[in-house]
C-alpha cells in the first residue's frame, strides 16, 4: 500500500484531486456559511465545522459505495451486432453515467455562474432556519448535492491507477480528508481568493468536463467497446495531469500580469 502511495502517479493524483476538491468545495463553503449565518453568532462556527465534518463522513461513505459498484467488473449484458460490441458491467455503467453527469453539471454550473451568479445563494437565503439542528440538516442536504460531483471526480482521477481498487479508495479518502481539513482551517482565505479570482472556479469546472470525457472513454474501454471493428483505448492519466498543470500555469501568468498592471 505504502509503495503505491509513494509512486509518481499516486502523488500526482493526490495533489490534483485535493486541489480540485478544494476548488469545487468553495460553493459548498459559501452555501454552508449562508445557512450558518442565520443562527445566533455563537452557533455559526459550530454549525460550519459540524457541516464540513459531516460532509467528510458522508463523502467517505459514498466513496465506499461507489467503489464497491466499480469493483463489479463482470459483464451482466452484452450487445453484439455486426458493427457494435459492448460488454456492459456495473463498473462501465457507473463510469459512463458519471462522465455524462460531470459534463452536464459542469457546463450547467459554468452557464449559471456567467448568467445567474447569485441564483443558488438567493434560494438558500430564502429558506427559514431557526435552530442548530435545522442548519445542520440543511447543510447535510447541501453537502450531499455537492458530494456527487466530488466523488465522480475522485473516481475519474484514480480509476485504473492500481489493479486493486481498494488502493484507489484509500487515495480518494486521503484526498477528501485533506481537502476538508484545509477548508475547515482556511475557509475564509480560500473564499476570498476565489472571490478575487473567479476564473479559478470556472477553470476547475472546465477540468471536470475533461474528467467526465475521460470517464466515458474509460467506460467504453473497460466494456471492450468496438465500433466497426475499432476498439476504444484508455486515455493515459498523464494527459489529464499535463492539461491541468498547463492551464494552472497559464492562469498563474495571468494573475501576475493583472497584478503588475494594477500597480
Walk me through what this model shows.
This protein is mostly helical. The chain has one domain (2-262). 78% of the residues lie in helices and 5% in strands. The protein is built from nine helices and four strands. It has a four-stranded antiparallel beta sheet with strand order 1-2-3-4. Helix 2 crosses helix 8 (199-222), helix 3 (41-70) packs antiparallel against helix 7 (165-196) and helix 4 (90-115) crosses helix 6. The termini are far apart. InterPro entries: Integral_membrane_TerC, MFS_trans_sf. It is found in: Membrane.
Strand order of the largest sheet: 1-2-3-4
Can you count the helices? 9
| Measured distance between first and last alpha carbons | 50 Å
Q: Helical content, roughly?
A: over 70%
Beta fraction: under 5%
Largest sheet: 4 strands, antiparallel
Number of domains: 1
Radius of gyration: 20 Å
Average pLDDT taken over every residue: 78
Unreliable segments of 5+ consecutive residues: none
Structural class: mainly alpha
The dominant shape is: globular
GO cellular component, one term: membrane
Pfam family, one: TerC
Subcellular location: Membrane
Keywords: Membrane, Transmembrane, Transmembrane helix
For the structure shown, list the relevant keywords.
single chain; 263 residues; mainly alpha; four-stranded antiparallel β-sheet
